[in-house]
């Protein structure tokens, strides 16, 4: 009597549903992104695989890491992420052993199994069955590649799936339509991490990532898919990039490495400036307060990305201080007529006018002029405002305005003015606005291109600091100007 086996492809490591005979073909390997082994299609199963292989169990970047030794099939690594969304097994392996299960149970077991794309589905069902039926989360765009259906498999859709405050799944696309990366804002090391799967492949120099439709067959990713991926990842800050296998990690400087890699790739496949491929189109951006500390950096960031910039100052003498590439104008942000004129041809108007101690009421005049003037235009408004109405972390709802640790008495009038400004925007229905609240500390510094984004609570790092350089605040400002993800919403950023 024949027995059924759950056959495993020796080339890609995918486990198939139980059958008496091996499948006639491996659908994964016959796809143009993969390949059939040079010796032809060959199969194994868990019992046979355990005879010559074991699960490699180590610590890697502060996490439990699992792999197959000696190397088998694609040789991916699985990682156990202990997050505020629960314990997540990121990626799967073709081999599962008692030792691997014991190691995971010793860390509290599993709440989720999440796999980036079909090449790593492997024996994901075996892991779920052995660990209490943990749900397997896959993107619905790749449902056709599932070779062993199972009740534990859950499909998600769209470009983002937020599992918790700290953990977000991002559909990157490109390699597969549903190719997924995982963003862990607070772990596993300070600065957070992007778990990139094969959507962004960590290069051997461990200073760049690459973008390929097929890695073994050397087919590059379509330029449109690379641009779309860059847009989907733009709002996420991270210091580390954790790649698909052992040692393929960028530890430190990950956000800059990814940004540089997007630029390098696009420069290689296009004849123009790759920065101009990021937004849907070249924008007309008007910056009010262009000679202030924030304004001048916002102008510089917008120009560097190839946008058309109108830089607005209060005094004619300041025009000579503006970058030559910007169109300089004199105007008063508190004057509705000036604002309507300056915003008439703009896609986005950015108010980078910061409150001045002793002149806090000017913030209210400026806000009223902005709203009255832009109500006559189609321009979006992006206000770099204050932090006063952010909630302090772990306070149960206390605002920074009422917390002397963040807002001493001498600065409270500015905080009150910022709170009134925020409320004025919240009541506004004519203008499409976005309000950016900075962190507790904002000062000139380096442009790293990274930041974390939040909504209504002050962002702090593992040491309790809440800070960002003005240069990286400007990055967040232009990211929002380009992508417009937060219509009539407030957001905040920090490292």
Give a description of the structure.
The protein folds into 2 domains: 76-277, Metallo-beta-lactamase, Chain A (4-Layer Sandwich); 284-494, NAD(P)-binding Rossmann-like Domain (Rossmann fold, 3-Layer(aba) Sandwich). Helix content is 24%, strand content 23%. It contains 11 helices and 29 strands. It has helices at residues 27-30, 46-52, 98-106, 124-130, 223-233, 254-269, 293-304, 336-343, 361-374, 412-426, 470-483; strands at residues 8-9, 43-44, 54-60, 63-69, 78-83, 86-90, 112-114, 136-139, 153-156, 160-162, 167-171, 180-184, 193-195, 201-202, 209-210, 212-214, 219-220, 240-242, 249-251, 284-288, 308-313, 327-330, 348-351, 380-384, 433-437, 441-443, 452-454, 467-469, 489-494. The strands form 7 sheets. An 8-stranded mixed β-sheet has the order 22-21-20-23-24-25-29-27, sandwiched between helices. Strands 3-4-5-6-7-8-9 form a 7-stranded mixed β-sheet. Helix 9 runs parallel beside helix 10.
Radius of gyration: 26 Å
CATH class of the largest domain: Alpha Beta
Uncertain segments are 273-280
Q: Strand tally, please? A: 29
The CATH superfamily of the largest domain turns out to be: NAD(P)-binding Rossmann-like Domain
Strand order of the biggest β-sheet: 22-21-20-23-24-25-29-27
Largest sheet: 8 strands, mixed
- The total of helices stands at 11
Q: What helical percentage do the residues reach?
A: 10-25%
% residues in beta strands: 15-25%
Q: Provide the residue-averaged pLDDT.
A: 91
CATH architecture of the largest domain: 3-Layer(aba) Sandwich
* CATH fold group of the largest domain: Rossmann fold
Rounded to the nearest angstrom, the distance between the terminal CA atoms is: 63 Å
Structural class: alpha/beta
Overall number of structural domains: 2
Shape: elongated
């Amino acid at each position: 009597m024949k027995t059924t086996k759950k056959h495993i492809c020796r080339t890609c490591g995918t486990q198939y549903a139980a059958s008496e005979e091996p499948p006639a073909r491996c659908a994964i390997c016959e796809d143009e992104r993969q390949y059939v082994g040079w010796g032809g299609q060959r199969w194994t199963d868990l019992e046979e695989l355990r005879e010559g292989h074991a699960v490699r169990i180590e610590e890697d970047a502060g996490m439990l890491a699992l792999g197959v030794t000696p190397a088998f099939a694609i040789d991916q690594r699985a990682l156990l992420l202990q997050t505020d969304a629960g314990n997540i097994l990121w990626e799967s392996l073709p081999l599962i052993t008692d030792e691997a299960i014991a190691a995971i149970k010793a860390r509290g077991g599993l709440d989720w199994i999440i796999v980036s794309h079909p090449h790593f589905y492997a024996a994901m069902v075996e892991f779920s069955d052995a660990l209490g039926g943990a749900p397997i989360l896959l993107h619905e765009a790749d449902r056709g590649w599932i070779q062993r259906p199972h009740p534990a498999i859950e499909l998600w859709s769209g470009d983002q799936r937020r599992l918790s405050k700290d953990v977000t799944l991002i559909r990157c696309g490109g390699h597969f339509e549903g190719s997924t990366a995982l963003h862990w804002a607070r772990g596993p090391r300070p600065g957070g991490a992007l778990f990139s799967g094969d959507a962004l492949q960590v290069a051997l120099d461990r200073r760049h990532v690459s973008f390929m439709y097929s890695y073994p067959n050397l087919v590059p990713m379509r330029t449109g898919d690379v641009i779309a991926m860059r847009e989907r990842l733009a709002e996420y800050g991270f210091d580390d990039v954790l790649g698909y296998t052992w040692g393929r990690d960028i530890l430190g400087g990950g956000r800059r490495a990814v940004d540089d890699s997007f630029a390098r790739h696009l420069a290689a496949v296009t004849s123009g400036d790759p920065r101009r491929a990021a937004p849907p189109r070249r924008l007309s951006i008007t910056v009010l307060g262009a000679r202030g500390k924030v304004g001048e950096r916002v102008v510089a960031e917008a120009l560097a990305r190839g946008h058309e910039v109108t830089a607005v100052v209060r005094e004619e003498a300041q025009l000579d201080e503006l970058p030559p590439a910007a169109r300089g104008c004199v105007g008063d942000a508190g004057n509705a007529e000036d604002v309507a004129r300056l915003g008439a041809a703009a896609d986005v108007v950015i108010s980078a006018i910061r409150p001045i101690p002793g002149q806090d009421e000017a913030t209210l005049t400026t806000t009223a002029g902005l709203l009255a003037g832009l109500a006559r235009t189609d321009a979006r408004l992006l206000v770099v405002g204050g932090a006063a109405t952010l909630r302090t972390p772990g306070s149960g709802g206390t605002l920074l305005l009422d917390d002397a640790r963040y807002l001493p008495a001498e600065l409270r009038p500015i905080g009150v003015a910022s709170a009134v400004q925020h409320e004025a925007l919240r009541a506004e229905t004519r203008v499409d606005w976005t309000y950016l609240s900075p962190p507790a500390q904002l000062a000139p510094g380096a442009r790293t291109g990274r930041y974390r984004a939040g909504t209504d609570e002050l962002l702090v790092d593992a040491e309790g600091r809440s800070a960002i350089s003005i240069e990286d605040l400007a990055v967040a400002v232009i990211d929002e100007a380009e992508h417009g993800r937060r219509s009539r919403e407030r957001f905040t950023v920090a490292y």
